[in-house]
Structure formats: C-alpha cells, structure tokens
Amino acid sequence: MRSPILAVLLGVLVSSPAWAGKEDRELRREERRAAPPTVRDIEFHEDQLFAQEFLRRGPHSPPPRVPVIHYLQRSDIFGRGTNNNLVRVSMEQDEDGVLAHVFPFRAFIDRVPLDTEVLEQDAWRVELWYAHHGWFDAEVTAWEVREVRPAPRLPGLRPRRLRGPVVDVIAHVELGPESLITLVEIDGIDHVSPAAMGTVRRAKDDMEGARFDIDAPYDMADIVRNQLLENGYARAATSVNVVARPDDHELEVFVQAEAGEICMFGEVEIVGNVDVRAEDIERRVPITPGERFDPRRLEETQRNLFGLGTFSVVQIEPQLEVEGQVIPIKITVTETRFRELKAGGGFALQRDQGQIRGVGRFGHNNLFGRLIRFEGEAIGGWKTFRSDTTVLDNTMGETTDEIVQDVISGGPFVEATGSLLYPNIFGTQWSHTPQLGFEFNRFPSYQVRDVSMSPRFTYAFTKNLAVTPGYRWNYRKEQLEAGAALTADELGALNIDPSNPEVEYHIHKMVVTGAWDTRRPLLQPSRGHYAEVTVAQAGAWLPGRTFAEARLDVRKYQTLVLRDFRPVIAVRGVGGVIEPFGDDPARREIPLTERYYLGGGTSLRGFGEDLVGPRGCSAADPGNADRVVSVPCTDPSLYADADGNETEIPGTDVDIYPLGGNVVAYYSVEARIPVGADYDVVLFHDNGALWAERSDVAWGAFSPTVGIGGRIATPAGPLRVDVAYRLRDDEAYQLDRRVAFYIALQEAF
Question: What does CATH list as the number for 264-335?
Fold first, then answer.
C-alpha cells in the first residue's frame, strides 16, 4: 500500500512549475515578461563624457568601456563628493530593500515597481537637489534602465506573486560649472572678544571661495550666534540674506547679528526629583548666580546630571522671557529606574574547548538615597576540554590495531565581582570605587582560585582630565589538573614548581592611572583624543611578588571633510613593559594574571583571543589516554615520549594556551567610511608583537594583519562585524587559522 506522505510529496512535485507542461511554462514566462520591472538600485553617474557617449551610442547599446579610474571617479567613495543616498532622498521613485533579493526573504518582501512617469518628475527633483548643493546648471541628461539577472529560486517552489524583470536605474547627470560663494559679510559682532572674532573670521575664510550649499549661510549664522551666546549675549539673534548671480555662478552671503545686552545667570530651580536629593543635584550644577551667561555651563550641567545614571530626561531652560539682564535657569529632571537586573546565557566552542555559561547582573544607581552606585556580576557554568588520541598496541614488540580514545576533562567555573561608586567623597571632584572579586576557573592543564580587593580614588581636574590612584590585593592559588604531565619549562612558565603541583602567592600593587579624554561621541568617536598612562609597583616594602609596570595607550580620531563624503580615521598605539626587581627569585616571578596578552577583536585582529606571543601547547598522551603532555607548538609531530620515541600528533588534537609576556607593542589604523545613515564600512590594519622578556624584543617579530568590517548603529552602540587576515605565515602560528571573524557591540577601540 502506498504511503500517504509519499502521495502528498508526489502531488506537490507534479503540481510544481518544474514538472508542469511546456505550454504552462511558456505562459508563466510571458506573464513574468509582462509584469512591470522592479527597481533593485538607483545610482547617479556624474561623468559628462560617459553620459555623452551613452547618448551617442543609443539607449539600447551596451554601456561603453571606460578606464577603471573613470569608474572610481563615479563611485560613492572616490566620486566628486555626491553620495547616492543623499540624492535619492529627493526622489519619489524608491528602490528594493536590502533583503528583497536574498533567499529566503525574497519570497515575502514586496519589490518596488518602476514608474516611468514618476521618474520623469524625479529629474526635476534631482536637478533641484544639485542646484541646492552648488551646481545651478546641473541637468539629468538620461535615465538608463539596465536589466539585471533576477535572483534564482529553488525548483518546485511557487512564489507568492509573479516576479517581473529586475532593473538598475542610473541617472546620468551633467553637472556644469560649480557656483561659488565669492563674498561673506557679517555685521553686528564688533564688540565680541578677540577669540570669538577669530573663530568667526576662520569660518568666513573657509566659506569664501567654497562651493555653494543651501545650508552653508545658515551654518554661518549659527556660528555667529553661538559666539555671541558664549560672550554673554543670551538673547542674540541673526538673519541671513543671499544674493545670487546665476549667470556668473557666484553668490554673496550677508549675515546680520543683533546681540542685545550682556546677561548673567540668575537663580537655579530644580524640579522633578523625588528620590534624589536636591543638594546632590546642586553639587553637579556648575552655575553660579551673578556669573556671566555662558551656554557651555548649561551643556556641562546636563552632561554631569546624565552621568549620574539616575535620570532619563534632563532639560535645562534659560528663562529668556524674564525681562532684564538676569536670566533664571530651570532644570527639569525625570528619574529613571534605579534598580536593574539582567540575566542571560550562552555557549562557546573553540577548537577542542567548550563551555556553557550563565550571566547575572544587578545594578543600583541610588543606593541608600545617596547616589551610591552598586554593580554586581556573576558568571558561572561548565567547561570541557577534549582531545583525541591514537594509542598503538605494541604488545610483544608487534604493532597491532590503532585505538582512538577521547580524553575529556573540565568541570564547573564561577566568576563574581562587585563594586561601589561613592561620589562626592571629598567634594564634587573626588569619587571612591571599592571593588571585590572572586574567581574559580579552569584551563586545559590547571585550575585557578583568585580573591581580589581593589579600592580606588578618582580626582577629576577638568571634564577631560582625571587621575586615579588605587591599591589592589590579590590572593591566588594555581593547581595542576589531574593527569597533566607538562615539562619543567612549561610548569615554570605557569609559575608551578614541578615538585609541588600547587602554588599560592599574594600581590600587593599600587597603581596610578591618568586619563585625558576628549572623544565625541563616546560610543562611536569621530573626533578627539584619548591618552591613558598607567604606572604601577607591586611588592617592595609590601609582601608578595615584586615588579614594576608602565603602560601607554594613545588614540586619535579625525573626521576628514571631503565635500559630502566624511570618513573617520582612527589610530591607536599601545606599549607596555613589566620588569621584576629584587633579590628573591621566588618574588621576582610575574604571575600569568599580571602579564600582557595580545590578539583578538580589540587588539591584534587576525589571531585568536590572547594567542599572540609566548604560548604553550598540550595534547593527550598517545601512550596514556589519562595523561596530558606538552608538545611543540611549531610542529606537534616532533613530540617524543619518555623513552625518546617520536609520535605524530595531528595539529587538530592540540590545545593552545597563552603564556603572556612582559613587553607589548602594537598599533591599529582604521578608515571608517559611511555608506548610509546608520551603516559604515571599515578598512583596518593592525600590527604588533608580544615578547616574554625585555631582552627578547626584536622588531622583526611584528605580525601585520589587514581586514574589512561593517558597523550598524544601534541604541546600545555600534554592532561591529570584522574579518581579518594575517599577512605573514609564521611557523610559530601554523596551528592557527589565517582568517579570523569577530562580532561585538562596540568599536574595536
């Protein structure tokens, strides 16, 4: 008897287009050809020669061959400053979404049909857009409709609706000469400070001789008004007049300023607070009644209050309707939820390691009603380490069958940290942050127990400069895993005495960190600097390990203004050294947790996390499946057992663990290229090295990488996706992949 399921499948196949008759298939093809085309993409080619050649050859001829440089000049990145996305906003003809041609979404997303009548009207809209941006004589000489190959679909799947041809629409635009701003005159600011006058003069010089943009005169008026406000003229106003001479392609801009009288700050009123005390808010308001009015004080106040983390809305309103020179200030706040609880989980797989983890976080931004901030986090789960080993049976001197065994180790792990932030500990510029931590963790060959305590004080000299002195105490115990049989050198690198599988030590560390931060905005900087200097000393007159450390981290962000195209160049350089001191060899050993590590998505991309520099490799003992032994990282096949017999161990069976180093140096360069309102393409280059000791430093050890990535703006920060490639195939990293992939909800730096 025939199966009902088989009957249904046969019925579906017979009724599908792939099994339909020839006449039915021809009918469907005709229906598809008759359906209106849909627009995949709209582009603008600002190449006069290309447009003229296109018109000469005719609309049905294939596009002419042009040199590569012409194509690059017409593209968004290397074009004459016009981004396709900017021009498209002026059109009514739309285009398909990103997923409209991607399986399986293309079966459910409506495509945008081409409307030739709307396209004719869009020619006027596009020309108006170009006129507003400095090309008065711009003309859309032709609309090129180029059919592209439609995306295939799986045989037997009937689409929800008929699909017509898919086309790209290309507007060929003859720009003509640029219209320039030849004169900028500003009246009414003779009484401002020399610094403000210099700012206005520089903006005026930049505008004169530049291509006209419809927003430029109003931007100039805003600059003038802002300088008046910063000089105390709270009721300053400006007006704009533009005189155009289209035949000469010249424009003149006139800005008239009305300053009014100099004003002063009045009383500050705070409303909307319920659980946050008014005196705690007033401490963060840098406004003094009787002081000359300055909008920068209002911005600083808003930044300070948002920084507390207790308000979702902060509105600061000067009461300009009050007559006289004294301007009262009203601050309206809306309190947010002080308590926040988050929980989540996940799993990770890397080579022959795996883990399942759960994460819980709790925060309180107004503990005891004193603006004390508490943050606690706990991570727990289970780790496993697996290795395949091949055992040869050499009974009676004869090699018999190979036996493949699995060596599985691991167990639970937990990490917990808690910190408090006490603001106003010795005044508004001082804050205190004590922190406690506990860790029980597992690695391929050893276990770790760690308890730490770290009180820190921060003094903010200015809004950009802060110094943080602190102290950190650690108690740490490292224990060799059962079955591990590492060499004496490897045990020494792990600070484990071969005669004693357990080691305990204390660290008493004094740390001073200075930070200069002018980055804006903080989540995705496009301008400003960041510099952090850290100096530390452990031991000396205190017990425990003795070493000194110095580290420097410098970053620079610069937006390049290339007409409408504004990429961000980001550069970072990091260097650090740790040096032991003292006469006691046991105290001079630097623990693994204090060493530098390099590699991963936030430092040297193209490598696994922390896998640059000194490393160790282990695998299951081919002669004893219950033992883990150390093997050469450069060539695991060179492993020799206790009797000196060489045994081949495949690289896929080797576990790599970082040993860290005492000297690190690396740099990163990124070009963040905007391709839309919320999307960036990033080209990056990383290069650096990590050395075990200062005597090992050699510049030839640097490992350069290159890569490409994407950024998508989200409320929580940029979603980052990077792909990196190692340029050098070093023998030391032959067990690593040369291509690495990273995804995170933050910039690399």
Answer: 3.10.20.310
